[in-house]
């Protein structure tokens, strides 16, 4: 029983970590764009 | 005996008229251009199949074709399994599944030309969040001169843009599976892998086949992202078919570009045709098995 509970808890933790990683991966470019809107200049270096 | 009326075919006329304007007329025009040497519309000369002969023997074209194929294979190899896995996890996420689905759907509405700008900002070593994190970790990410890094960036961008489509359609397919299937599997003591192999995968197969087709065609015609990131560089490492054709247009060689477009169109049409045939055959085999 204890083993099963630990397994379920580990599964939930792993799932949570995957969801956080997915949310960060998806939101980061948007967050960067919002961040740039507060900067005085847009970096030209590296821009196409 | 009941007589068949063919008047319903007239209902197709509006759709045919629109299709001829948006698809058939441009296609025939490009086909016509492909037999001429066109520098400008005033200077046109007939060259027959010269452009096609040149393309068939062109090492540059073959290399671009293989690069496009490799890119599409990598895109499908990453996004399809990852999307299905995430959709499977999302079915157990409860109320958070809606929030996460909305989050992954966000990039789908971003225009193509904005994607490279957003990612170049993100990996900028001075102001980019990811760029600064990579620099702090001692990882030199040089997408301008290192081909592997350019490919990684393109794949990351494409995955960011389109993963949501795979997740949403796979999730929709999984949500439609009736609970008795899982209950029967539980009674039989089926493993998680067996449930996926024999219940989930066949049930989401229809939606997945559309995703695979859309992702193949879309990744095969990648242009905007690859051009904005490195214009086909470094040293032609990301010169895909579309960029190869773009070079001809930039060089005012419209006849050659038109011939490349026709070959490109034929490749995509052949793949789509093969795909439709294979999926129809599989569906028929599945129906016969079920009967």
Topology readout:
The complex is a heterodimer of chains A (48) and B (291).
Chain A: H1 2-36
Chain B: H1 13-33, E1 36-40, E2 43-46, H2 50-56, H3 59-90, H4 96-105, H5 114-122, H6 129-136, H7 147-175, H8 179-188, H9 192-220, H10 224-230, H11 241-250, H12 254-290
Antiparallel strand pairs in B: 1-2
Helix pairs in contact in B: 1-12, 3-7, 3-9, 4-7, 5-10, 7-9, 7-10, 9-12, 11-12
Question: Main attributes?
Answer:
heterodimer, A: 48 residues, mainly alpha, 1 helix, 73% helix, rod-shaped, B: 291 residues, 12 helices
Q: Which chains share the greatest interface?
A: A-B, 23 and 31 residues
Residue share in helix of chain B: over 70%
How much beta of chain B, percentage-wise? under 5%
Biggest sheet details of chain B: 2 strands, antiparallel
Number of strands of chain A: 0
Strand coverage percent of chain A: under 5%
What is the residue-mean pLDDT of chain B, rounded to a whole number? 90
What gross morphology of chain A would you assign?
rod-shaped
Share in helix of chain A: over 70%
Q: Radius of gyration of chain A in whole Å, from Cα?
A: 19 Å
Structural class of chain B: mainly alpha
Strand order of the largest sheet of chain B: 1-2
Quick one: how many beta strands of chain B? Answer: 2
The DSSP helix count of chain A reads: 1
User: What is the chains' assembly state?
Assistant: heterodimer
């Amino acid at each position: 029983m204890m083993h099963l509970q630990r397994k379920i808890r580990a599964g939930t933790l792993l799932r949570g970590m995957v969801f956080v990683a997915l949310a960060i991966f998806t939101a980061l470019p948007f967050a960067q764009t919002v961040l740039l809107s507060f900067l005085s200049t847009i970096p030209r270096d590296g821009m196409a | 005996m009941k007589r068949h009326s063919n008047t319903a075919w007239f209902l197709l006329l509006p759709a045919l008229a629109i299709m001829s304007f948006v698809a058939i007329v441009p296609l025939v025009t490009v086909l016509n251009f492909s037999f001429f040497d066109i520098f400008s519309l005033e200077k046109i000369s007939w060259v027959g199949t010269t452009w096609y002969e040149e393309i068939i023997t062109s090492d540059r074209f073959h290399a671009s074709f293989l690069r496009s194929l490799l890119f599409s294979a990598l895109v499908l190899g990453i996004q399809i399994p990852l999307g299905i896995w995430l959709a499977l996890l999302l079915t157990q996420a409860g109320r958070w599944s809606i929030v996460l689905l909305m989050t992954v759907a966000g990039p789908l509405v971003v225009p193509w030309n904005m994607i490279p700008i957003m990612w170049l900002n993100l990996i900028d070593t001075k102001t980019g969040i990811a760029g600064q994190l990579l620099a702090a970790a001692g990882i030199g990410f040089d997408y301008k001169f290192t081909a592997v890094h350019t490919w990684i960036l393109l794949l990351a961008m494409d995955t960011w843009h389109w993963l949501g489509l795979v997740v949403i359609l796979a999730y929709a397919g999984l949500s439609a599976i009736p609970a008795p299937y899982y209950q029967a599997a539980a009674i039989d003591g089926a493993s998680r892998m067996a449930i996926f192999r024999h219940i989930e995968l066949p049930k989401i197969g229809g939606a997945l086949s559309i995703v695979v087709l859309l992702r193949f065609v879309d990744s095969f015609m990648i242009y905007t992202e690859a051009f904005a990131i490195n214009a086909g560089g470094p040293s032609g490492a990301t010169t895909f078919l579309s960029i190869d054709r773009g070079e001809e247009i930039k060089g005012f060689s419209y006849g050659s570009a038109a011939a490349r477009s026709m070959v490109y169109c034929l490749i995509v049409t052949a793949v789509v045709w093969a795909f439709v045939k294979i999926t129809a055959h599989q569906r028929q085999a599945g129906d016969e098995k079920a009967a």
